[in-house]
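Design review, sub-item: ligand-bound model
Attendees: FS, YL, KQ
YL presented the inputs for the protoporphyrin IX containing FE complex:
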Amino acid sequence: MKELMDKNTSCTFDFFDPEFQQDTHPTYARLLEQCPFSKGKGEHDFYAVSRYKDIVSICKATDMWSSKFGPGLRYYSPDEPRALVNVDPPEHDVEVQIVRRAFSGAYIKSLEDGIRDYSRELLADLPDSGEIDIHRAYSIPIPLYVICKLLGIDYADAKAHGFDDWVINNAISTVYDPADEEKAAIAADAQSEMIAYFTPKLKEWSDRIAAGDAAPDENLITRLVTAEHEGVKLSTNKILGFCGFLLVAGSATTTTAITNLVYRLFRHPEQRAKLVAEPALIAQAVEEGLRYDAPVHGLFRTNNRPTKLGSYDLEENTKVALLWASGNLDPEFIDEPELFDISRELKSTRRNLTFGYGIHTCLGASLARMEIAIAIAELLAKMPNYELVGEPKPSTPDVMSGFESLMIKW
Ligand code: HEM
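KQ shared the predicted structure:
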């Protein structure tokens, strides 16, 4: 790939700036207008890419731009459990083959009724009017229920082991900010708890398969413990890497997306009214929500060789953030990017970068879209006129873009 040499002024960008987290769009507008490439601020030594076309070309150039040090700002060490999102081809090709089957259209569709029933169950417990933190009561449990189903784990058992807390604290994903020692410690604890929880589950499912009590394609864990490539099985460390990653990748992100759309529809009452009047717009509303408020600001790559990014000279293995959320607001990608309009055609919004781009594109995208669509449709059916109570608290500054809680009344 040729070096990216677009014009650039000297710009800085800070994921961890609370002002940015409060309202990301003005920062993205500035970056898109003036700074295709910017430099991380303060102790955070990274660069960031803001425009749609540059993000896409970096994602395509996998020989140059690697995921081997992980998708966050922190550099993964070689002995940590890793899977998919922190491996490069050809290892990545094999892993995708193994996991992709678990995300087949037919399988995802088979989860639909269960997700709808579960969403209704959560709402049925609520009185006819009241006040609630919808983030905790609704957006968190739905994706956790789904990921447990996918992995073949009992949700009640998972809850008893603190799964919900891992998500509420965003515990594992906060590993991404290496400068925050307190959070890194919480994340490390969550990682150990996760390993301690999953290790016996792997053995349990292997034993059940050996005893003829479970099928190899019963769930994601059985697929992983039986998967072979060229006669070699996946190591336990690798399988734990998959489980830990899926838990975070599949839950915190979708949770954030649901809450973000609840918030956004409140802020745009005419759009909400349109959706209530015309429920068939739900897929378009979900896509517009994902484009407008991407749950993940951006994720990182490192360069395999020294290169240039605009006017910046990058040493080998420099962390570079691909700002999906910014690419989604690029006027070269979409007309009137600041307009939140749930009737935009899917063929234009679907190309958003919220699920990444290229070989690492999210494998759970269809599942996530379905979960968000069901969650929002059911919520609007129960309380079409919900209102926000007070100002919601943004989640702590991080690569995730959402809220810690969202109080609503109906
Ligand atoms: C709204 C919800 C979601 C968002 C915003 C999201 C976002 C992303 C992004 C941006 C990537 C690309 C990572 C990179 O390029 O480094 C990714 C990868 C991935 N996501 Fe998601 N995701 C969501 C939901 C899910 C769900 C529900 C699952 C599974 C249950 C899932 C599984 C994965 C997997 C397995 C990958 C790795 C693909 C690879 O590296 O080949 N995601 N996701």
